[in-house]
């Protein structure tokens, strides 16, 4: 998912292209997906990030899906409506520059336990301890913050999974978040 406007980041680049330790965030996310057991990668782009769309269209093994750019959930639903996209689907936000293959595989393993959808969250307290912003919380569990990693399953059932992995807790919405991510890069 890489079609948002990223206005809070205040970067001269589009949010997915904002560099963390010299590498655009979207490329870091793609490297994490490549190191996992994910088969096909679709990048969901929008008119809000035309340079990102152009960058991804030049990237091998990535297929782009153009959406209207009306928000994460609306764009995800639009992508899921494409004939080539069949659940189960892992959705990942492009602002998770610390994502690694092992983390992705662990989330995929959760789906193997059940065919229900999974929303991966971290405790808001973990995000605060790391120094990153807590911009969104679950309505029915305000102590949890969604990570931007989800599994869309094949059933109507949805479950929340709580992770304590800082690689999922550091999503970049502001320049300070980017500095924290950079400090945590290996």
Structure description:
The protein has helices at residues 25-34, 50-57, 72-80, 101-113, 124-130, 166-169, 175-184, and strands spanning 19-20, 23-24, 41-45, 62-66, 89-92, 117-123, 144-152, 158-162. It has 186 residues and is α/β, with parallel strands linked by helices. The chain has a four-stranded mixed β-sheet. Strands 1-2 form a two-stranded antiparallel sheet. The longest helix has 13 residues, at 101-113. The protein starts with 18 loop residues before the first strand and ends with a helix.
Strands across the major sheet, in which order? Answer: 5-7-6-8
Percent of residues in beta strands? 15-25%
Task: Report the order of strands and helices.
Answer: EEHEHEHEHEHEEHH
Q: Show unreliable segments.
A: none
Structural class: alpha/beta
Number of strand elements: 8
The value of Rg in angstroms is: 15 Å
What is the residue-mean pLDDT, rounded to a whole number? 92
Terminus-to-terminus distance: 24 Å
The biggest sheet, with number of strands, parallel, antiparallel or mixed sense and barrel status, is: 4 strands, mixed
Helix percent reads: 25-40%
Query: Number of helical runs?
Result: 7
Question: Looking at the structure, what is the overall shape?
Answer: globular
């Amino acid at each position: 998912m890489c079609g948002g406007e990223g206005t809070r980041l205040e970067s001269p680049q589009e949010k997915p292209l904002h560099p963390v330790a010299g590498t655009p965030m979207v490329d870091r996310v793609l490297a994490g997906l490549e190191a996992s057991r994910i088969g096909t990668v679709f990048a969901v782009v929008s008119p809000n990030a035309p340079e990102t769309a152009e960058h991804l269209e030049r990237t091998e093994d990535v297929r782009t899906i153009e959406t209207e750019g009306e928000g994460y959930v609306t764009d995800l639903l639009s992508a899921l409506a494409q004939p080539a996209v069949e659940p189960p689907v892992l959705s990942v936000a492009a602002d998770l520059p610390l994502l690694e293959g092992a983390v992705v595989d662990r989330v995929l393993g959760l789906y193997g336990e059940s065919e229900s959808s999974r929303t991966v969250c971290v405790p808001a307290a973990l995000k605060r301890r790391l120094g990153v912003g807590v911009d969104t919380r679950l309505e029915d569990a305000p102590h949890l913050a969604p990570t931007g990693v989800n599994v869309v399953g094949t059933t109507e059932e949805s479950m929340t999974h709580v992770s304590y992995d800082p690689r999922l807790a550091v999503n970049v919405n502001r320049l300070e978040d980017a500095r924290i991510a950079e400090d945590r890069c290996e």
